[in-house]
Amino acid sequence: MFYKEIDRDIKGVIKIGQDDDTNVHQELDEYVVTRELARHFSTFFEAYREAINNYTDKMGVWISGFFGSGKSHFLKILSYLLENREVKGKRAISYFDDKIEDASVLADIKASGDVSADVILFNIDSKADSDSRTNKESIVNVFNKVFNEMQGFCGSLPWLADLEAQMVKEGSYEAFKSRFEELSGESWIEAREDFYFEEDNIVQALTS
């Protein structure tokens, strides 16, 4: 009678962070592409294709709409398609083979999957510091924080993340982390935010 189990768990609100394979599979599998959404996918991936083929500094995309109109869900789906990760043995873009009727739009979507992309999806409020409402550069700081975290660097101390990036560039980061753990008894990742308490061990690890 029903194609899918009607007593299955269905998320009433789409939230950033629900990125386990089960949730992602359900979102991709059950996402309904309406005519309006099809136009939005066309607009986005046409622009994305142009950015792939030709240099441009016009990198921003603004998603607007009323509360509850599906902005967050649309954004999450875009992130899945751009990352094109494998979910339940199937690439994200493949879930859209029978959802997009326009062959040219589907071709643009598939072309995006041929390009390597690092996707960072996050909620700004959850990543912002307490002074975010008064600091004019708060959004830039949040972006920098999340970008550093994505690379495995310290998010809370930008200058420390710069030091880590420099060590990666020099090829000494792994040796530094091992030496630091020998000296302090703690892993660098767990202890780095206590930088000032670990200063002596850090200096020794850097100079070893």
Overall 3D form: elongated
Q: What is the overall pLDDT average?
A: 86
Q: What's the Cα radius of gyration? A: 21 Å
Number of self-contained structural domains = 2
Which residue ranges are poorly predicted, with pLDDT under 50 across at least 5 consecutive positions?
none
- Helix percent reads 40-55%
Strand tally is 2
N/C terminus separation? 69 Å
Q: Name the beta content range.
A: under 5%
Order of helices and strands: HHHEEHHHHHHH
Largest sheet: 2 strands, antiparallel
Which structural category do the helix and sheet elements fall into? mainly alpha
Number of helices: 10
How do the strands line up in the largest sheet? Answer: 1-2
What can you see in these coordinates?
The chain is an all-alpha fold and 208 residues long. It has 2 domains: 21-113, no CATH class; 127-207, no CATH class. The chain has helices at 21-30, 35-53, 71-83, 103-113, 124-127, 138-150, 158-170, 173-184, 188-191, 199-207; strands at residues 86-87, 90-91. Strands 1-2 form a two-stranded antiparallel ribbon. β1 (86-87) and β2 form a beta hairpin. α2 (35-53) packs across α4. The longest helix has 19 residues, at 35-53. 18% of the residues are buried.
